[in-house]
Design a protein that fits this description.
Elements (H helix, E strand, L loop, with lengths): L2 H15 L15 E2 L16 E7 L5 E7 L3 E9 L5 E6 L5 E5 L8 E7 L2 E9 L5 E9 L7 H11 L21 E3 L2 H4 L1 E3 L12 E6 L5 E6 L3 E8 L5 E7 L4 E6 L6 E9 L2 E9 L6 E8 L2 H10 L14 E5 L3 E7 L6 E7 L3 E9 L5 E7 L4 E6 L7 E7 L2 E9 L6 E9 L4
Parallel strand pairs: 1-3, 11-13, 20-22
Antiparallel strand pairs: 2-9, 3-8, 4-7, 4-9, 5-6, 5-8, 10-11, 12-19, 13-18, 14-17, 14-19, 15-16, 15-18, 21-28, 22-27, 23-26, 23-28, 24-25, 24-27
Keywords: Signal
Protein name: ABC transporter substrate-binding protein
């Protein structure tokens, strides 16, 4: 069967099998299918078991699953790809507002999210992380229903423990000097409050709390005035996933692996006065202490952090260290001593149109990653783990001009790497 035949067959099958069009739901996002086959059978609050369907995603589109709730319920939403597929899920309410999203919390490349929802109609959109064709199983159920993924089961187990927080005393730091006074609050499901009262904007020094995710999967904080802030969750042994919501359940942001396996959320638009909830999930060890810190958002520091992680090209004005390697004429090899996972930046000049081959090679150990940018900051190429090993390689067609190369290492060993460049010109 050809790809064209498969697309046409799938479109016809969807038109025949879909008993409802999603343009009537979730802000009119497009055609969708009831997760239970029809609207009556897709009421997750009243169902005796989970509901699931097969999602076929082609040409960068999304598969939309519809479900309803006749009463409030804690709903688990999961997607597991078949083969090498990497699904990403996004949950929308009846108005089309995004109330949750996830990638990889189900374990491996699977997605999982746990949301406390009110009665209404909801949509789950499943997409492919890298826009390649995807076949995935989508499952929607309550916490007592069987989970599709290991991460989904862990989410339900963690949720079951969130209602047991009854301690009203003030705690002290288990990690000296890192915990401010915390008390319990009725907000955010009885979460523990970060700080001893409303935060008045004095976050320059930061406020930190340290506890295991198993013991405290939820925190809360209260703002007395608008504040742009950063929230971090740190301990790579736990591999924490960080979620920010409002006390009313409104979703703001979620992050996993911002800095190594640590997580960070930057709210660049000031949050308005009110109470906010910080949710934590451990993808590894939930029994190790994780430090959660609230601090004032620093745009300069945030921008520099992007340069240091190699995600954004720094300016060429000398404000950030860049090693000038000159014009790439034929073949060059540079020895680079890495310092943790901080990117090392290199400037090169290309005199003629041609093919530029760049390799990051571990001299003895390491896991190099490469990124290539043009002189205005557009990413031209990216690679991690070329071929069968951990070395990286970028092959890109380039034109005369200036380019920036970011070399990183994600092994955590600060190894010695070799940066190899070769230039090829078109045959005459």
């Amino acid at each position: 069967m050809t790809l064209r035949t498969l697309i046409c067959t799938t479109a016809m099958a969807g038109a025949l099998a879909s008993p409802a069009a999603a343009q009537d739901y979730c802000g009119g996002i497009g055609n969708g299918q009831w997760i239970g086959g029809n609207e009556a059978n897709s009421d997750i609050a009243a169902s005796d078991s989970f509901r699931e369907q097969l999602a076929l995603v082609l040409l960068g589109n999304a598969h939309t699953s519809l479900f309803t709730l006749s009463s409030p319920a804690e709903v688990r939403l999961e997607a597991a790809g078949r083969g090498s597929g990497d699904p990403v899920i996004e949950i929308l309410d009846g108005s089309g507002a995004v109330i949750g999203s996830d990638d990889d919390s189900g374990g491996g490349t699977s997605s999982a999210a746990l949301l406390a929802l009110q009665p209404g109609t909801y949509c789950v959109q499943t997409t492919s992380w890298d826009n390649s064709p995807l076949t995935a199983t989508v499952r929607v159920g309550r916490t007592e229903h069987e989970a599709l993924t290991e991460g989904g089961a862990a989410l339900a187990a963690g949720s079951a423990g969130t209602a047991t927080t009854t301690d009203t005393t003030t705690d002290t730091a288990s990690d000296a000097g890192t915990m401010d006074a915390v008390t319990d609050t009725e907000a955010c499901g009885g979460a523990r409050m970060i700080g001893s009262g409303p935060i008045d904007g004095s976050l320059d020094a930061g406020i930190s709390v340290t506890e295991t995710i198993n013991a405290t999967p939820n925190w809360a904080f209260e703002l007395s005035q608008p504040a742009a802030l950063s929230i971090t969750a740190e301990n790579e042994a736990a591999d924490p996933v960080l979620t920010l919501t409002g006390a009313d359940g409104s979703f703001y942001a979620e992050n996993d692996d911002y800095d190594g396996l640590n997580s960070r959320i930057d709210m660049t638009t000031p949050l308005q006065p009110g109470t906010y909830c910080v949710g934590l999930r451990a993808l590894s060890d939930g029994g190790v202490p994780v430090t959660v810190t609230l601090s004032a958002f620093d745009p300069e520091a945030a921008t520099r952090a992007l340069y240091e992680r190699g995600e954004v090209a720094p300016p060429l004005d000398g404000s950030f260290p860049i090693t000038d390697l000159g014009t790439v004429s034929a073949r060059s090899v540079s020895q680079v001593q890495m310092q943790g996972d901080t990117a090392q930046w290199f400037r090169i000049e290309v005199a003629e149109t041609g093919l530029l081959l760049i390799e990051g090679i571990a001299a003895s150990s390491g896991d190099p990653v490469l990124r290539l940018f043009d002189d205005v900051g557009r990413e031209v190429g990216y690679n991690d783990d070329y071929g069968q090993g951990l070395d990286s390689q970028i092959a890109a067609r380039v034109f005369p001009g200036t380019y920036l190369v970011a070399l990183m290492d994600i092994s955590g060993q600060s190894p010695l790497l070799r940066l190899v460049m070769e230039r090829y010109v078109p045959a005459q």
